Each structure stands twice: as structure tokens, then as C-alpha cells.
Amino acid sequence: MSTAFPEPASHAQLGALYQDHHGWLQGWLRRRLGDRERAADIAQDTFLRLLVTRRLPGVGEGRSYLAQIARNLVIDQWRRQRIEQAYLESLAALPEPETPCLETRAIVIETLLRIDTMLDGMPPRVREAFLLSQFEGLTYPQIAERLQVSVSSVQKYMIRAIQACYQVLYAE
């Protein structure tokens, strides 16, 4: 991949990249995913990502750059499917009158995805301290004991976790 930041995309460069590599990328994805339609969708999303970010690979780096973007899109898709499936399974346990409408479901799934992304971006100790605090209700001294760190370390972890929460909340 290019060393610093790829050059901003021009429409002509993007068109040439599309023409040179779209067929290859779609075939590469089809072989890995085993699904022609998903491969086509992800290949298109890959080039859409390039168009939106306006970043192109360096000379001779087209395929590896496109493959990395496509891999990230596949991972995002799998993550979304996993979260949606878990949410739908939890909804199936609810009595019918308590089942939320489709709009509410979509909002909840998007929120869960944002939380998952936020947690995934935290360093392991910060994430663990945050989860122990928020979901197990442990106090800072209990978390410190569990993680075998000082209470002041737990305080620092929680500050970082709360900052990550605020970044997600106020990013838009």
C-alpha cells in the first residue's frame, strides 16, 4: 500500500481503476464468498468507498488496495449480520404485542452496530473495565481486583471508555 495517504481521486483515475480491476475484484470476491450477487454488491461498494473517500492506491497497488477495502466491507457485513441475528433471536423471545416496529428495529440495530464498533476500537483493558462496570455492575475496586491493576488504572480506563462513548454519540 502507499506509504502516506493515497492521492485524492479524479474521476478519470477512478474510471481507469474500475475498468482495469472491477472484473478481477468481483471474481476474487466470488471465489471467497461463494455468492455471485454478494460479490457484485461488495465490488460496487468498494468502488463507491473510493469515490466517497476520494483516495486511490499508488501505482501498482490497485489490486491489493481494492482487496483490503473489500475485506473490510465483508467484515463489516459479517459483523452486521451477527448483530442483527442476535437481536432478532432476542425479539423472538418476546410476546407478540411487545415486538417493536420495523423502524424501531432498524434504529436499535444501527445503535448496536455503533456500540460494537466503539467497543471493538477500545484497547482490551479499557473495554474489559467498561464492560465489567456497565454490565456486571462492579465497582472500581472490584474491577481493579479482577484485572489485577490499581484503582487509578481503572479510573483511567473508564475515562478512555467514556470518551469513546461520547465520540460515538456526538460524531454526527
TrEMBL record:
CDD domains xrefs: Sigma70_r4
All copies of domain RNA polymerase sigma factor 70 region 4 type, residue ranges: 113-165
InterPro entries: RNA_pol_sigma-70-like, RNA_pol_sigma-70_dom, RNA_pol_sigma70_r2, RNA_pol_sigma70_r4_t2, RNA_pol_sigma_r2, RNA_pol_sigma_r3/r4-like, WH-like_DNA-bd_sf
GO molecular function, one term: DNA binding
Xref: Gene3D superfamilies: 1.10.1740.10, Winged helix-like DNA-binding domain superfamily/Winged helix DNA-binding domain
Entry's Gene Ontology BP terms: DNA-templated transcription initiation
Keyword annotations from UniProtKB, A to Z: Sigma factor, Transcription, Transcription regulation
Residue ranges of domain RNA polymerase sigma-70 region in the record: 17-82
Keyword Transcription included in the entry's annotation: yes
Protein family (similarity comment): Belongs to the sigma-70 factor family. ECF subfamily.
Protein name (record): RNA polymerase sigma-70 factor, ECF subfamily
Source lineage: Bacteria, Pseudomonadati, Pseudomonadota, Gammaproteobacteria, Pseudomonadales
